[in-house]
Amino acid sequence: MEKQIILTGDRPTGNLHIGHYVGSLKKRVELQNSGNFQQFVMIADLQALTDNANNPEKIRSSILEVFLDYIAAGLEIDKTRFFLQSQIPALFELPMYYSNLVTLARLERNPTIKTEIKMRGFNRSVPVGFVTYPISQAADITAFKAKFVPVGEDQLPMIEQAREIVHSFNSTYGEVLVSPEAILPDNKSCHRIVGIDGNAKMSKSLNNCIFLKDDPETLRKKVMSMFTDPNHIRVEDPGETENNPVFIYLDAFSTPAHFEKFLPEYKNLEELKAHYQRGGLGDVKVKKFLANVMEDTLAPMRARRAEFEDKKDYLLEILARDSAYAREITNQTLQEVRAAIGLNYFSNNKL
Ligand code: TRP
Asked: What is the pLDDT of residues 246-257, one digit of tens each?
């Protein structure tokens, strides 16, 4: 039986951070290593252009950085295919057809787009390419006939939009497209990682990220400067763990092995939380532990990154090779789509 297909990707607008890691990269590595799927990972340079039209250099300079972040996270060349969105013509032809199946009202209802428009202060001056990027994203997914899309929670509305497009296309023109499903992280606290300042979103523009490539010193400084429970002033005070960024990160990253290694007086996170909640546990102690946990997580990533950092030509070769492969796969879907709509005028005297 043919392997089921996974397609996912990221916008190259800077380095990837720990939110990307727990939200999606970690899952991709698991899926890759299961050997049960054919996985495509796309560097979405065209989607990145939708709100960076006047700064293509930012995107250009981020492409290999994102690729290195993938490798750092544990994705492997020859186990996963890595390609560039802009090199795959099917991905910009399909949206032309899909656009006719989606209303403006539907696009404007997309909660992620709404938030992003607000965050960028676009209002009605939002670029058309930006409001319609969910349609382009539906093309990314369906061009590969992907069944699964490992993404962070903020991308659920995009998958929903893709499913609606598939439904509409298939019922209008015939069964061609595959309806995709999102794969979210198993651990709920990984669904959305807050910034080190407690802001709901970890984002480069908010300057509140921990990047996968942060060096040990930067990492430690960032963790020690993290926002915690503002009412936990003295060590004796009872503290809140629920909306406390330090504990959210511990939820996402710490394991019982970390406790054994760095904080053996507690068995696990539950014990640590209980102590914090009843009072008598200081922020500094918790942060030092978190700093060790994060260093333990990021150190192997830095090592994997270092292996490829100086191999720019090789990385470009891989992107070109896998992009060529992706073109083949997606052109096949494109032909089926064109035939379903009846645009294949010159084959079998269709006109
Ligand atoms: N929107 C995604 C992000 O911002 C990137 C992306 C583009 C994507 N096309 C995709 C993700 C297709 C999954 C599937 O990170």
From this structure: 999 999 999 999
